[in-house]
Amino acid sequence: MLFRNILFFMGESWKNLFRNGWMSLASIGVVAVTLFILSVFVLINMNVHHLTEVIEQDVEIALYIDEEATSDEREQLVENLRNHPEIKKADFVSKEEGLERLRDQLGEENGLLEGYENPEDNPLRDAYEISMHDPEAVSSVAREIETYPAVGGVEFGEDVVENLFDFTGVLQVTVMGLMVALALTATFLISHTIRLTVMLRKREITIMKYVGATNWFIRWPFLFEGFNLGLLGTVIPLVGIYFGYESVLQWIDANLKFFPSLIPLETAMGQVIILVVPLGMALGIIGSLISMGRYLKV
Amino acid sequence: MIEAVNVTKKYNDGNQALKKVSFLIDRGEFVFLVGQSGAGKSTLFKMIIKELVPTSGTLKVFGRDVSRLRGKEVSVLRRNIGIVFQDFRLLEEKTVYDNIAFAMRASGASPREMRKRIPQVLEQVGLKKKVYSRVNELSGGELQRAGIARAISNRPAMIVADEPTGNLDPQTSMDIIKLLRNINVKGTTVLVATHDQQIVDELKKRVIYLEEGRIVGDQEKGAYVRAL
Is residue B108 in a domain? Predict the structure, then answer.
């Protein structure tokens, strides 16, 4: 294809886009909604995977010591933990240390802890943070050490991990269904927009045929039109996702002190762009091809 | 240039538009095709540019069987045939220049060729002053001149004109047909389908008579009414 023809086809396709203003807008809108939902889904999915990994790496057992336990019982507990084959290490965290950590995590809002300065009033308990050789063994080990004397309670993150996986599973099925329906609507609308252009330009198409234009010379502007519709449809969701995700990150940072960090904005946008831009173009091109197959017999 | 051997065209509705039509048109000839509406003139024209294909028989244009032409070969065929329509088929919102440029670009001409060729063809058809006029500002005669300018812009070997004077008054019709004759004098084969008795009788060129899909006469220096 000659360069001057490419410029000509592009010019023609933009003219057509404006000629069918409302239909173009509707097509772009549906592509945008489809891709926006897809992007949100991709971001959630990516972050859930990211969080799962973070949590899995961090899965530890927090063992709280019974306040009533005698020093013999405590020594026995240390011995038991040290000798357990599944346990990699067990770090002692005194309740004072625990309070200090909490103060750090809360940052500016550590005013919440006012009134607990006196060791007598410290609501926390002495604890051990236990990590495993194999994170899979967490729940069985947790159940076992819960029975040791001097143990006041045991906590571990297994439920969180399982719930996250359940959540993404349901989300995937729902969103995939929605996506397919929206993608079909988008291609349908695009093909209709292009059909309108074909009708509007019937006279020009006939003349082009009679003077010996090749089939592709006639088809290219319509293909470019679909491509433009798809491409414009990707711009809106990308801008929306950029600012939306940025606010989510800022909100989490400001309000959810204990929440692990999400995927950074640049990395996340990179992934979304790689997926959304080609998909938008593909929807546009498929829409034009359908329309040309049906309405542009050249 | 055009060789038809037993060309028959039957439409899907059972209507037989052409029945075993045979004729030969040589390079450089000027030929009128006359007959009532429905005699098969338009069907024949559509076959020459491969908009339709014969149901049976063979139609050769420039030595090639049009039924066998595929894709790009059809484009090449059409670039060698200039078509003139009764209703002009110009793009009304564009200027005369843009109409010709549009056709030339579609048939693969470069912008340079267009800039050179368009003034030439407008000079040839006597429309040089109207080069930047919009088509909807032109008179009937001027519209057909613009149509002819477009048809010859790609230097076709043959012009086919389907009722080119159908929408024009007698004087303008005569001007248009003389313009086609001048183009023919320079070597382009011209085939004109017409109802117009005056122009056929005036020019005294070869006339092929079609009646209900059959050729009923073919006379050198013929008149509109067939001599028996």
Answer: no
Cβ atoms of B179 and B148 closer than 8 Å: yes
C-alpha–C-alpha distance, residues A106 and A110, integer Å: 5
Give pLDDT, residue A147. Answer: 86
Does the model's ipTM exceed the 0.90 cut?
A: no
Q: How far apart are CA B98 and CA A203, in angstroms?
A: 15
Question: Residue A77 is encoded by which pair of tokens?
Answer: 């507990």
User: Nearest by CB to B75, which of A204, A206, A212?
Assistant: A212
Instruction: Specify the number of domains making up chain A.
Output: 2
> Which of A156, A177, A209 is the last residue in one of the domains?
A156
CATH number at residue A111: 3.30.70.3040
The Cβ of residue B19 has, within 10 Å, a number of other Cβ atoms equal to 16
Q: Determine what percent of chain B is predicted with pLDDT higher than 70.
A: 100
* A85's tokens: 């084959």
Query: Is the Cβ–Cβ distance between B76 and B156 less than 8 Å?
Result: no
The DSSP 8-state label assigned to residue A118 in this structure reads S
What tokens appear for A288 in the block?
A: 């034009």
Q: Say whether B106 and A203 touch across the interface (CB within 8 A).
A: no
**C-alpha–C-alpha distance, residues A187 and B80, integer Å:** 39
Residue in this structure with the two tokens 């599944």, named with its chain if needed: A86
- Do A186 and A49 lie in one domain? The reply is yes
Interface of B with A in 58-77 (CB under 8 A): 71-72, 74-77
Q: What is the CATH number of the domain that holds B27?
A: 3.40.50.300
CB contacts < 8 A, A to B, total 53
CB under 8 Å to A298, separation ≥6 — which residues? A205, A209, A215, A218, A219
Do A140 and A287 belong to one domain?
Answer: no
What backbone torsions phi and psi does residue B78 show, to the nearest 5 degrees?
-70, -30
Does B131 have pLDDT greater than 90? Answer: yes
* Residues in chain A with pLDDT values less than 70: 1, 56-59, 135-136, 157-165, 168, 295-298
Rounded Cα distance between A286 and A225, Å, is 11
Same domain flag for A177 and A238: yes
- Scanning every residue of chain B, which has its alpha carbon at the shortest distance from the alpha carbon of A298? B71
Write out the residue range of the structural domain in which residue B47 sits. 1-80+200-228
